[in-house]
Structure formats: structure tokens, C-alpha cells
Specification:
The complex is a heterodimer.
Chain A lengths: L2 E3 L3 E5 L4 E8 L6 E6 L6 E6 L3 E5 L2 E6 L4 E6 L8 E8 L5 E3 L3 E6 L1
Parallel strand pairs in A: 2-11
Antiparallel strand pairs in A: 1-3, 3-8, 4-5, 4-9, 6-7, 7-8, 9-10, 9-11
Chain B lengths: L3 E4 L2 E4 L5 E7 L5 E7 L6 E8 L2 E4 L6 E3 L9 E3 L8 E8 L9 E2 L3 E5 L1
Parallel strand pairs in B: 2-11
Antiparallel strand pairs in B: 1-3, 3-8, 4-5, 4-9, 5-6, 7-8, 9-10, 9-11
Classes of the chains: A mainly beta, B mainly beta.
């Protein structure tokens, strides 16, 4: 079966750095997405990785290792507005998105 | 401004009633999707459509129906056959299916059936 694992919840301090991990086992791989979702709102796109390595975009970076079936989202200089759920999703061999359950990130002052 | 609208934001229904959730996009996207989101679970695909007058079942289509008469619109009907309809429903669109293009989401409709 297809499976995506993320931690359910993480807590971090304002101004710090946090790494949210995502491991996947899917039938084929055509890329991995990270989305941010504030409570009760729509998910919004953060990043897309299809090649191994690190992609940096401002305070957010996303890393992919296809051989390990592993990705992480790195958030730097955390702000209170970063409190949200972070969703990992893999595009499988049929170009269908398989979604993880999301990681709820709590930022404390 | 281009985007996706869903209405209403909150919807309450009695058990046994059908209810239709609205989804409209002005992004000129060919592909549209309906997801269901439940606490502690990933988004689950209900139906998707690649083109007008064509749609396919997703992983959990039972108890739901859709139509795609216009490119801009993709309404979802939750029928009385859906065993556990209370959930947060998200509509999304993308340039086309079968590609790595990102999906754009509407604000969602929270449906409560009692």
C-alpha cells in the first residue's frame, strides 16, 4: 500500500528553527509537495521537489532524498504566524497526489 | 483576482437529506478536485475532473456525486447514502491532471449532519 508518515504535532519557540520530516512509500514517484494549512482554512503551496537536494525559498527550505523516501521542511526564524499544519504529499506513478495526515506546528513565544 | 470560491463556509443538514456544495474557479484551470479532510487523516480524494462533462471517482466516491457542465464549476452532492458525511470539504483546481502542477484550494465547506 501507499503510505506517508509525518509527526502528528511539533512545538517550537519563536525565532528558532524547526525541521518537519516526511517519509513515504508510494507506487512510483513524480515529486513531493509541501503545503501549509492554517486551522479551518485552505492549504497553500509551499514547495515542490522532484530532484534530490535542498530547495531554499526565503525562511523555508525543503529537502528530498528519493533513495531514502524522505523529505523535510525546514523553517527558520520562526514567527507566530507559522503556527499551522504542514502537509506532505507525493505524486505517485499515476500522477495522483497521496497526502500525509499533516504535522501541526505550535509556536510558543 | 483569480481564485476558487466555495460556498457556504458552514452547512448544517439533517440526516437523510442530500446537500450540494458549490465550487467555482476563475483560474481557467482544466482540472478540478474534491477532497474530504477529517481530523488526523490526510486529504482523501472524492472525485476529480480533467475536462468539462468528464469526471472520475477518487478513493472514496461512494455516497457522493458530481457534475462538470462548465469549466468554472464543479459542484459536489453529498447524498443520504454517505454513511459519515460530517467533514471539512475542500475543492481544488490545477492547470491539468497528470502533471506536477500545484493545486489551488478553495476555503472549504464544513458540513455537519445530525
Amino acid at each position: 500500500g501507499q503510505n506517508i508518515d509525518q509527526p502528528t504535532e511539533m512545538t517550537a519557540t519563536e525565532g528558532a528553527i524547526v525541521q518537519i520530516n516526511c517519509t513515504y512509500q508510494t507506487s512510483g514517484f513524480n515529486g513531493l509537495f509541501w503545503y501549509q494549512q492554517h486551522a479551518g482554512e485552505a492549504p497553500t503551496f509551499l514547495s515542490y521537489n522532484v530532484l534530490d537536494g535542498l530547495e531554499e525559498k526565503g525562511r523555508f527550505s525543503s529537502f528530498l532524498s528519493r533513495s531514502k523516501g524522505y523529505s523535510y521542511l525546514l523553517l527558520k526564524e520562526l514567527q507566530m504566524k507559522d503556527s499551522a499544519s504542514y502537509l506532505c504529499a507525493v505524486l505517485d506513478s499515476n500522477y495522483q497526489l497521496i497526502w500525509g495526515a499533516g504535522t501541526k506546528l505550535i509556536i510558543k513565544p | 483576482d483569480g481564485g476558487i470560491t466555495q460556498s457556504p463556509k458552514y452547512l448544517f443538514r439533517k440526516e437523510g437529506q442530500n446537500v450540494t456544495l458549490s465550487c467555482e474557479q476563475n483560474l481557467n484551470h482544466d482540472a478540478m478536485y474534491w477532497y474530504r479532510q477529517d481530523p488526523g487523516q490526510g486529504l482523501r480524494l472524492i472525485y476529480y475532473s480533467q475536462i468539462v462533462n468528464d469526471f472520475q471517482k477518487g478513493d472514496i466516491a461512494e455516497g457522493y456525486s458530481v457534475s462538470r457542465e462548465k469549466k468554472e464549476s464543479f459542484p459536489l452532492t453529498v447524498t443520504s447514502a454517505q454513511k459519515n458525511p460530517t467533514a471539512f470539504y475542500l475543492c481544488a483546481s490545477s492547470i491539468e491532471t497528470g502533471t506536477p502542477y500545484e493545486q489551488y484550494f478553495g476555503p472549504g465547506t464544513r458540513l455537519t449532519v445530525t
